[in-house]
Write the structure tokens for this entry.
Amino acid sequence: MSSNKIRWSSWLPLVPALALLAGILLVPLGKTFVRSVSNPDLTLANYEHLFTDGVTMTVLGRTALTAATVTIAALLLGYPYAYLMTRVSARTRGILLVVVLIPFWTSVMARNFAWIIILQDGGPVQSAFEAVGIDDVVLYGTTAGVTIAMTQVMLPFMVLPLFSTLGAIDRKLLLAARGLGSSPTAAFWKVFWPLSRGGVMAGVMLVFTLSLGFYVTPALLGSPQQSLVAQLLAQRTTLLLDFAAAGALGMVVLVITLVLVVWANRVGGTVSAIGVVATSQPKDR
Amino acid sequence: MVSRSRTALAGATFAVATLLLASCGSADDGSASGTGGPEKLTFVSYGGSGQDAQIKAFQEPYTAAHPNITFANSSPADVAQVKAQVQAGVVQWDVMSVAPAAAKQNCGTLFEKLSVPKLDPKDFTPQAIGECYVGNWSNATIFGYNAAKYPEGPKTLKDFFDTGKFPGKRGVITNLQNGILEFPLLADGVAPDKIYPLDVDRALRKWDTIRKDTLFAANVGALQQAASADQVDMFLLPDSRMISLLNDKKNVKMVWDTTVVTLNALAVPLGSKHKAAAEDFLQSLVQPEPAAKIAEALAVVPINLNAKPNLSENGKLLEVNGPVNTGKSVIQDIDWYSQNFDAVTTKLGNWLVG
């Protein structure tokens, strides 16, 4: 009896959050799914069409490839950065954090238009390449330009979970490895890297899944040939008013993302890849 | 050390949460509806200088004459929003900008059939008054070029597609309303009066020939920006944006071969709570005076044949029905587009992203 009471009261604080989730996520999602399979009779035509129209699969593949490129670039840039953040004074760490967060305090439009100016014909990037003798580098309207701008936006999502994980690694283990005769490189790969894997997976998952949904940056910086899946969704929603087909496409993207999350949780081993951001604790030894 | 890294961790966790929220963005719908007595019409257009001009030329004079009618302005005018509002049974918009083909295609299903007895079609350009829409103005999409780049400028639409004779970057808007399908066909030798029904495949094959030299801009703003930043040397840009380039003293010249003219319309979403007031407002704004006013403000083509806009010098350089136009015009066929909109949109969209 009494344990029941305790259980109920401990659930109580969750009610607003659960109600919000149900109201703004589950109900619309359910409606979207129902609409995508009804015509109004039960049909899978919308899903079949995704595989047979010759465009959706191309764009999905392109989206995955772009997201993967952005993720790798963010990891290569973010890992050393996050490592540095764990090794400096609190004041410097604060500065490093602000630097990585600045893109987020800038409006999306301002940021993207800034990239247009930087990347366009006659812009500073082109001039820089010309200064070293490489002419006609125009990144505006190319996949490379889109990838660079997306990486900038995604960097904090990589740096922050990495920072929280790397900061929690007990550095005495590295000393121990060195003391037992390991080279610095070997100590990193055998001790430090495996311990940081949870943070790497968390960052990778965050960046990859968020990159799958990019809309404004490729729309402004790319040409239509660099369209990602969000632009296809927009076309089906706003131009064709085909909510059912758009819903089907959205469902496919959602399923792909969920599969990836499950996979990441497995690969991440005992550390929950997504949970690490909130749960990882510094070792108190 | 421990407590400091805990604080840092908490900070990082909080920052991630904030980022996630920030990246979700926010949508603002400034909707409002009046109840009884005074009425507030929600007017939805494309924002920017165009909507500012609509406020000045259409709304303010109307409110001055009918003090009980006021306006709430919102943007963008997205037909998908109308569909969502109609499906949900909560229609919040009363007057909105729309492509007439879309209004015709969805007449009676997403848009109200209109009763506008005060308007006589004889006073207007062809197709300007439809069953479910009232014309707003017409846009001419004009072939312009950077005169600094080509002292001996291009003379015909053929030259637009001839990168051998005129090397340089081209720009076009991917919106069907800006002639993306008409211009290649005209350049390919299709007679202006024989252009409908459009041969979409042929148009896209023509684009294939200069695809790598062309910027396919997703909207008018993107192409205007590209033209003003010298990212494109030849461009197919509507009059209302071309005037901004001219007003900014950009060295742009026009090629008057064949120009594509498109009606831009206003419609009433199905289930609007202020239909009668909206209809009266629509009838007022196509009268000669407001029609002239909007043409002066935006360098667009008035749909009322009795409108006598007092155009600026730059406005006269873009006047598709004026003496400056030594070529021809094609008026976009609303009937054809309303019947073929989905198929053509899909075909063009697939070609673009492919």
Summary: The radius of gyration of chain B is 23 Å.
